[in-house]
Amino acid sequence: MTQRRDWAQEDALAAMRSVLAERYLALKVRRYVLEEDFDAATSRVEFWLALNEAPAEALTGVGVGLIDALFGGLRARFAAEHPSLESVSFSSLHVRGLACDGAAALSTAAQVEARVGVRNSYGNVFDFAVVSESVSRSSVSAVVAAVEYFVNAERAYVALFMAREQAARDGRPALVEQYTSRLSEMVRNTSYSAVIERLRAVR
After folding, report:
1. Which of the residues 36, 131, 188, 189 has an alpha carbon 20 to 30 A from that of 15?
2. What confidence score (pLDDT) does residue 110 get?
3. Percent of the chain with pLDDT over 70
4. pLDDT score at 120
5. Cβ atoms 155, 52 nearer than 8 A
6. CB count, 10 Å around CB of 191?
7. What's the rounded Cα separation, in Å, for the pair 44 and 174?
8. 98 sits in which H/E element
9. Are 112 and 133 in contact (CB under 8 A)?
10. Does 123 have pLDDT greater than 90?
11. Is the pLDDT at 83 greater than 60, yes or no?
């Protein structure tokens, strides 16, 4: 399985990993069970999500189709701690078979790319693409990659915000300027207004 990202997302992820280090939260769905009611146009997905090296936890999501239900379950799991997730939404899903020779096309080894678009609070769309040998695995993994990206973007923003506050209290203007610059780069991902309000409320 391979994730495909553009240079801007690669740079943003590198920045998140640099800021968070061992606190970076890696997400992976181990398996899922999907139940669809065609008449009611609803889907219910039960899935097992692993956070870093911890044992997978069972989660449930309900929506219209697998992607909507999965994202609903992930948002329900993380939005209380990461309120910026409430400001993003899925805007598109594209699935395509990749070019291959005739033998591979007829085999189970054919590669499939799923690409999901996620719109942030500013209307900007981020694409997350995953290639695997399964339509459903690629689709699920692309959704998880998107949630992982925005969750860690918020975690990195909070870490930088707190570091800037501490630098200001310590009277270190050069550090304040440095953290402010890094915060301006991180805020491009989504809106952190609710996050900032929460941080100021607990100070």
Report:
1. 131
2. 78
3. 93
4. 87
5. no
6. 16
7. 51
8. none
9. yes
10. no
11. yes
